TrEMBL record:
Biological role: Catalyzes the formation of N(7)-methylguanine at position 46 (m7G46) in tRNA.
Listed Polar residues bias regions: 1-14
One term of GO molecular function: tRNA (guanine(46)-N7)-methyltransferase activity
Pfam families named in the record: Methyltransf_4 (PF02390)
Name of the molecule in the record: tRNA (guanine-N(7)-)-methyltransferase
Length: 238
């Protein structure tokens, strides 16, 4: 896929070459999302061009800092930020309708503890976040790329996990969740072999869903149909 520009600026969504973990299915923003985007992006949007950020400067305080990668339409991230006003949240999403939807939630709920990147998470991790800045990283329901020939596109890989590790403080949590059993097994294998991480439950064990991870409508529907959801919580040890 060629580099594509994002409405948040003239810069491409990603600067990375090679295999991507996402395909841009932009779609159209609704009128409400577009207006919310236009009103609120200047205040809540972050860009690659800003370079390495100082979270204390961005939020005006030094609180627990969370990063959600791939927030979709933003409902869960808005729920978490509203439930924990004493914490700060950075969300990353390449699909602009989702960015617009979250900015509408931010506006409607009067949330001040969210900032947003609309670029590839790899660029956010490599170019924008200082080491040991994060208390928690959340990757909820990433694209499972179910076909075996596409498994190399899955976001959760050894290299990515190690780069995330350096952005977490020691003791910080990496929280992964998926509703694809095969991907859950892949994640557990990756995390079990990852240097500097330890399972918060016990080796090889999936964790119960923590209260702070909101249950989505999609997840509730799947649960009613008997579909499983797997949570992995690992903390940085060194």
């Amino acid at each position: 896929m060629s580099e594509q520009n994002n409405e948040s600026g003239d810069s491409p969504v990603t600067t990375r070459k090679g295999v991507r973990s996402f395909v841009l299915r932009q779609g159209r923003m609704t009128e409400g999302q577009k207006k919310a985007y236009e009103r609120n992006w200047p205040k809540y949007g972050l860009t690659r061009e800003q370079g390495m950020i100082d979270p204390r400067e961005i939020f005006g305080r030094d609180n627990m800092l969370n990063l959600e990668i791939g927030f979709g339409m933003g409902q869960s991230l808005a729920d978490m930020a509203e439930a924990a006003p004493e914490q700060d949240f950075i969300g990353v999403e390449v699909h602009l309708p989702g960015v617009g939807a979250l900015l509408k939630e931010v506006e409607d709920r009067g949330l001040e503890n969210i900032r947003i990147y609309a670029i590839d998470a790899n660029d956010v991790v490599d170019l924008c976040l200082p080491d040991a800045a994060l208390d928690r990283v959340m990757v909820y329901f990433p694209d499972p790329w179910p076909k075996k020939k596409h498994h190399k596109r899955r976001l959760v890989q050894h290299d990515f996990v190690q780069r995330l590790r350096h952005k977490l403080r020691v003791g910080g949590i990496l929280h992964l969740a998926t509703d694809w059993e095969n991907y859950a097994e892949h994640m557990m294998e990756i995390m079990g072999e990852s240097e500097g991480f330890e399972n918060s439950v016990e080796p090889g064990a999936f964790a119960p869903r923590p209260d702070e991870r909101p249950m989505t409508k999609f997840e509730k529907r799947g649960e009613n149909l008997g579909h499983g959801v797997w949570d992995l919580l690992f903390y940085r040890t060194n």
